[in-house]
Amino acid sequence: MSLRLRAAGFPVTVYNRTRAKAVAAIAAGATFVESPRAAAEGADIVFSMVADDTASRLMWLGDRGALAGARPGAGLVESSTLTVEWVRELAAAAAARGAELVDAPVTGSKNAAAAGELNFLVGGSAAALARIRPALDAMGRSVTHLGPTGSGALVKLINNFVCGVQLASIAEALAWIEQSGLDRAKALAVLLEGAPGSPIAKLTTARMIAGDFTPNFPLKLMAKDLAYAVKESMARGQPLATASAAYDVFQRAIAAGHGDKDMSAVVELLRRP
Question: Which domain holds residue 165?
Answer without folding.
Answer: 154-270
